[in-house]
Amino acid sequence: MDSDEDFLSTVSSDDDIMLDDSENDDISNGDEFDDAFDEDPDDEPDLGLQKQKTPVAYDVGYKVYSPGDIQKQQEEMMNEVNMILEMSKEDAAILLRHFRWNKERLIEDFMDNSDKVVEAAGIVTSVANPRNSKR
């Protein structure tokens, strides 16, 4: 037996028949269990409970804000950026608009390279960044 082919070729035809017959013995093919796993809603008893609709990936919860609520949130963000970055409210508003009101990204990028952020937003450096003028 030099290879796998020699080994496989030595299997007798009687063995093949036995293997084929063993598949059809008294093993149940699951036909009697089909009713237990039937998911037809007509067969289920009505317990007075409604099934909850499963959320779909594109179904996103949202809240509608009034213009006053939006303005209040913008003012809070401008005050926060104003205090953290020590700049005027106007410059903070310009930077927030430039960063599409993503306060965390603004602060992170500003701490990494304030000159580049201020220049990209179009703010005059000497007015916008008093921290750099003190250095």
Keywords:
ARIH1-like_UBL, mainly alpha, 53% helix, 135 residues, RING-5, elongated
Explain the overall architecture.
53% of the residues lie in helices and 0% in strands. The chain has 135 residues and is mainly alpha-helical. The protein has a domain at 67-134. The model has no long low-confidence stretch (mean pLDDT 75).
What structural category characterises the helix and strand content?
Answer: mainly alpha
Quote the beta fraction: under 5%
Task: Note the total helix count.
Answer: 8
Largest sheet: none
The radius of gyration is 36 Å
Compute the number of strand runs. Answer: 0
N/C terminus separation:
86 Å
Region (Disordered): 1-49
Protein name: RING-5
Organism: Apiospora hydei
InterPro entries: ARIH1-like_UBL
Task: Summarize the model shown.
53% of the residues lie in helices and 0% in strands.
Write the layout of secondary structure elements.
Layout: H1 4-9, H2 13-22, H3 67-85, H4 89-98, H5 103-112, H6 114-121, H7 125-128, H8 130-134
Helix pairs in contact: 3-4, 5-6
